[in-house]
Amino acid sequence: xxxxxxxxxxxxxxxxxxxxxxxxxxxxxxxxxxxxxxxxxxxxxxxxxxxxxxxxxxxxxxxxxxxxxxxxxxxxxxxxxxxxxxxxxxxxxxxxxxxxxxxxxxxxxxxxxxxxxxxxxxxxxxxxxxxxxxxxxxxxxxxxxxxxxxxxxxxxxxxxxxxxxxxxxxxxxxxxxxxxxxxxxxxxxxxxxxxxxxxxxxxxxxxxxxxxxxxxxxxxxxxxxxxxxxxxxxxxxxxxxxxxxxxxxxxxxxxxxxxxxxxxxxxxxxxxxxxxxxxxxxxxxxxxxxxxxxxxxxxxxxxxxxxxxxxxxxxxxxxxxxxxxxxxxxxxxxxxxxxxxxxxxxxxxxxxxxxxxxxxxxxxxxxxxxxxxxxxxxxxxxxxxxxxxxxxxxxxxxxxxxxxxxxxxxxxxx
Length: 414
Prior knowledge:
Layout: E1 3-6, H1 11-14, H2 21-38, H3 40-50, H4 62-70, H5 74-94, E2 99-104, E3 107-115, E4 118-122, H6 131-144, E5 148-153, H7 158-166, E6 171-174, H8 177-186, E7 196-198, H9 203-212, E8 217-218, E9 226-230, H10 236-247, E10 254-259, H11 262-276, H12 282-292, E11 294-297, H13 301-311, E12 315-318, E13 332-335, H14 341-346, E14 372-380, H15 382-398, H16 402-409
Parallel strand pairs: 1-11, 4-5, 4-7, 5-6, 7-8, 9-10, 9-12, 10-11, 12-13
Antiparallel strand pairs: 2-3, 3-14
Helix pairs in contact: 2-3, 2-8, 2-9, 4-7, 5-6, 8-9, 10-11, 10-12, 15-16
């Protein structure tokens, strides 16, 4: 049974679980060092131990990807095409644009946009293999123009391999866990070194990304998935369905409904029980509902928004679109009763690789912008430099950097 709590008891629910990160870091560190020192030898040994690798190295041959694609059903292919089209359209809208603008006489400023050389996409394939995550990580990279897109999954199923072929991915590696993150970070004879690693994973993947951030670019260190819903008069079936859709991901998942209505709270709690009774993934979802989830009674919409912004949820569902103006922190927002979080997971277009554990205070979800570098450009003529010279030289000398000042003055004959 899901808990119904007053808002003054929400503190413990909103406390972030440390997710055993400290313990995971201790487990992961020697794995990273082994791959750094021994490269493919260590990587293959770990892949045989953990990922059931039965080929000489971790790279999946192109013919295996093509064979998997041939076995995909027409319905699955159609679903992939729909999702890819919408994700590609949204990623295109997200792309930073180059520009050049004369902001003052003789002073032209702008930016150029260049793709990263190589990215590594981590695709979970444990309890649930996720071809949708393959789409979400690969398509924005293609939009950004990344020339080398590498994908890995620990135990790839035919749907993953076939989707990779449909997307034109040729670098696919059967590897997972911390060893896969290390391979992308350091590079091996088989696995190219990536500029950035993207995609969700378990606690050991998150720990590896945390340790290697700086050695390689990452999207973010992800924790358990979460959804927060604010509704006073929604359909209990919809609300329970959205909470269970999140809860079935993982026993550590978190689903929270904020409402002013006691009647709705009781109805949703009953509906959660009813749907759990016939849900195939109930063994996982039930634990997440009982351990980490709740229906919280709030006094006002303002209090609900304050709680939400404090929590900074990965997914935020608002049945009243007027509340959007009060949202400060969220990974992705779903407006209205017919915008389920599952739409964003698969086919509506925005990315489903999103910040968790409060990281939405710092950034939004994965986007095409994560795959490019924005490089500033400036062009000054002599007159423009002359007008700026007093500010440049004064600031340079205030900092004790005489050569900076003189590099300007020499151009002006001073």
